[in-house]
Amino acid sequence: MVSTDINIKKSKAFDVAEIRKKFPVLERKVKGRDLVYFDNAATAQKPQVVIDALVRYYHQYNANIHRGIHSLAEEATAAFEATRDTVKEFINARHREEIIFTRGVTEGINLVAATYGRQHIKEGDEIIITGMEHHSNIVPWQLVCEEKKAVLKIIPVDDNGDLVMDDFEKLITPKTKIVSIVHASNSLGTINPVKEIIEIAHRHNIVVLVDGAQSSVHLEIDVQDMDCDFFVISSHKVYGPTGVGVLYGKKELLEAMPPYMGGGEMIKEVTFEKTTYNDLPYKFEAGTPNIADTVAFKAALDFVNETGKENIRRHEEALTKYAMEQLSAIEGVRLIGTSKHKTSVVSFIVDGAHPQDMGILLDNYGIAVRTGHHCCQPLMNRFEIPGTVRASFAMYNTKEEVDELVKGVGKAIKMLK
Ligand code: PMP
Predict the structure, then answer these.
(1) Backbone region of residue 366 per phi and psi (left: phi > 0; alpha: psi in -120 to 50; beta: other values)
(2) Which of the chain's termini has less CB crowding within 10 Å, N or C?
(3) In 3-state terms, what secondary structure has residue 297?
(4) Is 375 annotated in the active site?
């Protein structure tokens, strides 16, 4: 099932049929049908080049990094550090030491909350997030608020799934210390006006963390232009392996922050009386990191760069528009998240059908969607729904696959009546 085209002009640079050949999992069958993988916002599939990079590391140069002087250790260190340089370019950071490897977005936010947050938040202070945050950008701040007796404030979300920006500045007081916002919502697809939010926050001397879990794969990221203080990424959403992520932080902020975890690599000198800490980025990279997956993450970023983010974005935008038109034409289907600025996420509910039941029926047709609250329970409460059915598109998805989804939803509705 390979698309030739939709409303997309076929260019030499982007041919979805060619792209699909690079993702081995797309060849498999599910329940006897061609797999239609529409759960990309949860995790993207991996191209062969990423799998090859992972295997090559274990086959040829598995070694611990930084401290070894033998050849394998040097090769492994060079490959690991090469990923840091590629990430630096990918998000246009000013310095390579501003790139800290983590396990993912969740760890990145927890790191900032537990270090910068605990260092700067005092009793009565305020942290602002939005009403569309993933639990991983809610709970770490609640932990800080609980410990410090601080207050969490929420920028509301309107019926289209856009932030009510007029309310944002009203929430700011002299006690506001941190704003932490999602760049693109995993449940709605909404792309938030992060530059505007950052500019307003900075006028009040407030630091801003941007959750780039969903945006980093779809949008051009330029942290210098955005001027965010922190930005977090998960490799597995950008066609890379699981278990690796990035925390970008402005150098002067990272330097002033206490370490997150103690252990090997993050130290300069240890005595029983006192320990001095390593320079950036190593101060925040205690212990043996996930070397293999970090090395393979570079292959994923190279792959995205070679395919071209603009090509990918145009393809996904066309698929999203088509899916929204087709799905909303089905009687009983209501789209949740109709912002004008969206990534390739289409969330919907069906009258009289629980999202879970829809998900199970769609799986019977080989279609993988995500159902439920998408780790955004407060957002689901805001829309007064238990959850949604979410189809999220990646570079390898096709118009024909969207047609399969639309057919599947129609059939499922009939069965559930
Ligand atoms: N924030 C958003 C917006 C997300 O979509 C996700 C993943 N669903 C996360 C945070 C957490 O990412 P991870 O599980 O990779 O740490």
Answers:
(1) left
(2) C
(3) helix
(4) yes
Separate counts of helices (H) and strands (E) for the chain: 16, 17
Give the integer Cα–Cα distance in Å for 351 and 370.
18
Report the pLDDT value the prediction gives residue 8, as an integer from 0 to 100.
Answer: 44
Query: What global pTM score does this model have?
Result: 0.96
Residue 105 has pLDDT above 50, yes or no: yes
User: What is the C-alpha separation between 43 and 104, in angstroms, rounded?
Assistant: 12
Task: Work out the mean pLDDT of the chain and round it to a whole number.
Answer: 96
pLDDT of residue 67: 83
* DSSP annotation string for 145-177: HHHHT-EEEEE-B-TTS-B-HHHHHHH--TTEE
DSSP characters for 312-378? HHHHHHHHHHHHHHHHHTSTTEEEE---SSB-SEEEEEETTB-HHHHHHHHHHTTEE-EEE-TT-HH
Determine which residue's CA is closest to atom 8 belonging to ligand 1.
42
Does residue 213 line the site of ligand 1, with CB under 6 A?
Answer: yes
**If you measure from the C-alpha of residue 136 to the centroid of ligand 1, how many angstroms do you get, rounded to a whole number?**
7
Q: In the prediction, which pLDDT does 11 show?
A: 46
pLDDT band at 4 (very low <50, low <70, confident <90, very high): very low
Residues in CB range of 105: below 8 A, 6 or more apart: 134, 136, 211, 212, 213, 232, 233, 234, 245
State which ligand 1 atom lies nearest to the alpha carbon of 42: 8
Which phi and psi (to 5°) does residue 411 adopt? -65, -40
User: How far does the centroid of ligand 1 lie from the alpha carbon of residue 357, in Å?
Assistant: 24
- Are 2 and 20 spatial neighbours (Cβ–Cβ below 8 Å)? yes
Please name the amino acid found at residue 83: T
CA atoms within 13 A on the CB side of 206: 29
Question: Is residue 234 lining ligand 1, measured as CB closer than 6 Å?
Answer: yes
**For the chain, which domains are there?**
16-40+308-416 (3.90.1150.10), 51-305 (3.40.640.10)
The CA 185 to ligand 1 mean position distance, Å, reads: 10
Question: Would you say the CB of residue 392 lies under 6 angstroms from ligand 1?
Answer: no
Confidence band for 45, pLDDT divided at 50, 70 and 90: very high
Verify whether ligand 1 is closer than 6 Å to residue 186 (CB atom).
Answer: yes
Note whether 46 and 240 are within 8 A (CB): yes
Reported as a pLDDT band with limits 50, 70 and 90, residue 14 is confident
Between CA 294 and CA 299 the distance in angstroms is: 9
